[in-house]
Amino acid sequence: MDRVSIVPVADRHSAREFLSYPYRLYKGHPYWVPPLVVAQRELFDARRHPFYRHGRIERFLAIRSSRVVGRIAAILDPRYSEFHGERAGFFGFFDVADDEAVVSALTGAACEWLRRMGAEVIRGPVNPTTNYDCGVLVDGFDSSPRIMMTYNHPYYGPLLEQAGLRKAMDLLSYDIDTATARNGRVDGLLARGAQDGLVVRPIRMAEYESEVLLAWEAYNAAWARNWGFVPLTREEFIHYSREMKPILVPSLALFAEMGGVLAGFAVAVPDINEALKHVGGRLFPFGLAKLLWHKRNIRHVRVVLLGVRPEYRATPTAASLYAQLIREARRLKYAGAECSWILEDNILMRRAIEGLGGVVTKTYRIYEV
Hints:
- The protein is α+β, with helices and mostly antiparallel strands.
- It folds into two domains: 5-170, Gcn5-related N-acetyltransferase (GNAT) (Aminopeptidase), CATH 3.40.630.30; 175-364, Aminopeptidase (3-Layer(aba) Sandwich).
- It has twelve helices and 13 strands.
- It has helices at residues 12-25, 37-43, 78-84, 100-116, 156-162, 183-195, 208-223, 234-244, 273-276, 287-295, 317-331, 347-354, and strands spanning 5-8, 56-64, 67-76, 88-96, 121-124, 136-139, 166-177, 198-202, 253-258, 261-270, 300-308, 336-343, 359-368.
- Strands 1, 2, 3, 4, 5, 6, 7, 8, 9, 10, 11, 12 and 13 form a 13-stranded mixed beta sheet that branches.
- Strand 11, helix 11 and strand 12 (336-343) form a beta-alpha-beta unit.
- The chain is globular, with a radius of gyration of 21 Å.
- The two termini are 28 Å apart.
- The mean pLDDT is 94.
């Protein structure tokens, strides 16, 4: 068998190869959802994407017999290292053929580059941080991922472990059937929150920018103690919110206030992946029409953000936000809601979801070396 060569992405041709490889690897796969090519391009545009104001990404391709057989990115995020007090590096955008030699070569190249940059611990995959889609799917391969979640072949995890990586943390996805969710529990949680003075309201779209900044402050405060978290800059959060705005349903973007102070917030969005599956990653010439057609049949939502300020974690804020999202999703005729991702050691959040009837349906894993 021919030798595997690892080459850095250094020109337009290799950049196109890096971008297009997953579309070839998963072509015709029944569960993989092709992301929009334009969105993927933007992730690697150092002039436009706010991550590059502080972070750096070095991309690599694995080549065998003149063909691309894998890709990986080495990621430096100084803000993470400063926040956690450790010299950390990351890898991400990892896609590969079922070949142990290729996986070892790719991870070896990324780790070598990161160690030259001073990293002492390396984790991944993150794309490019835990604030974006991340993890290797290790359980739950029999259905498509929800919006902003990943999918991969079952061999990814075993091959990474054979290459010397070990589990760092599992991330869980819970599904709640809105028709069979525990109605009494939903009503009881909302009543208890109201008794404690909690007011849950939808986002004020007329004041979108100021509401986003309010959520940004709460988000960074709420997640500050979570494993793997790195605070989003103001610019990153605004960028993220602008991408989300076109699919936002105001009644599924909730602010929980106690005594006029923001205690927490939650956002669920329609699972646009159910429509994107039919688009093939491109909006033109026919993709946009297909997207609009299939968008009418979206049956699920995903809770993409939920955060409660530390001083309010002993209150029913998180449970009330989940309960209100379930009630509203049911009213809007959505069949189910995915709550993802949840750290495996976040026992309080897991109990809140399980109390509403949530069941783990997918498990994602962050590895480290």
